[in-house]
Design goal:
- The protein contains no helices and 13 strands.
- Strands 1, 2, 3, 4, 5, 6, 7, 8, 9, 10, 11, 12 and 13 form a 13-stranded antiparallel β-sheet that branches.
- It is globular.
- The protein is mainly beta.
């Protein structure tokens, strides 16, 4: 209704790693001045006698903060390679399959992403990978049994031409002695490479419910979602199509 708008914003993404040995690392993800608009929050000068602010046209600097994040640390976690698998501990990005449900948001233009405060182990058995994790999804009152925990188990076969796996989470939270909330998410994923054609499919469902708070009670959650992507071509030219379907909620 106001015709066109023009602006310039800024973002810088850094993914530094601190490598202590071949088996021990710390990985971090930082966003510096993420999505800050050029010229946002100009500093206004104040008259030294009256204290009144002068026009922002005379501003000579940019405020720091004021509702915008200067440096956002998305994650920081330790990584240890043991002989039978890999341990991770800390706040880490979470991604699975095609990214339909769990997407770390690490692409240059991604504004959001999934991460988790968890202890995770990934163990390879040939081309098959076993995944197990426990995470604190919400820390409420310290020393009170009111946290939200998530338990994760998954298995995936990752070959050069084929991939197949299942990633499952069970979330449980308590609110007082008699209030409880649970949610199970099951996710199936598959991909196949047939010559110059690649197909990727993912299907997920959720079921659960309970009390979300003292005021929101007897919630029931049931839903499914699926997507299929097909790509044809080589390194120079690729043509693709993607489609998806998901259920919603009337409320």
């Amino acid at each position: 209704s106001e015709e066109s708008s023009m602006w310039t914003d800024h973002r810088l993404q850094l993914l530094p790693s601190f490598v202590f040995s071949d088996a021990v690392r710390i990985r971090t993800g930082l966003k510096v001045l993420p999505f800050n608009t050029f010229g946002a929050h100009p500093v206004s000068m104040a008259d030294p006698v009256t204290g009144e602010e002068t026009a922002q046209a005379y501003a000579y600097g940019i405020r720091s903060g004021e509702g915008e994040t200067d440096i956002a640390i998305d994650y920081a976690y330790g990584e240890v390679d043991a002989g039978f698998g890999q341990f991770r501990f800390g706040r880490m990005p979470v991604e699975w399959g095609s990214g339909m449900v769990y997407n770390a948001g690490l692409d240059p233009l991604s504004e959001y992403g999934d991460n988790a405060d968890r202890l995770q182990i990934t163990a390879p058995v040939g081309p098959v990978y076993l995944i197990g994790a426990i995470e604190t999804s919400a820390e409420n009152f310290i020393n009170a049994d009111d946290d939200m925990l998530t338990y994760t188990g998954g298995v995936a076969y990752l070959g050069e031409r084929y991939g197949l796996g299942s990633y499952n989470t069970y979330r449980v939270a308590k609110f007082g002695d008699d209030s409880k909330y649970t949610l199970f998410t099951g996710d199936l994923w598959a991909r196949v490479q047939l010559g110059m054609t690649s197909l990727e499919w993912e299907f997920a469902f959720q079921t659960g419910g309970g009390n979300l708070s003292e005021d929101v009670n007897d919630v029931t959650i049931t839903g499914i979602g699926t997507q299929l992507t097909a790509l044809v071509g080589g390194d120079t030219l690729r043509v693709g199509a993607s489609g998806g379907l998901a259920t919603g909620d009337q409320d």
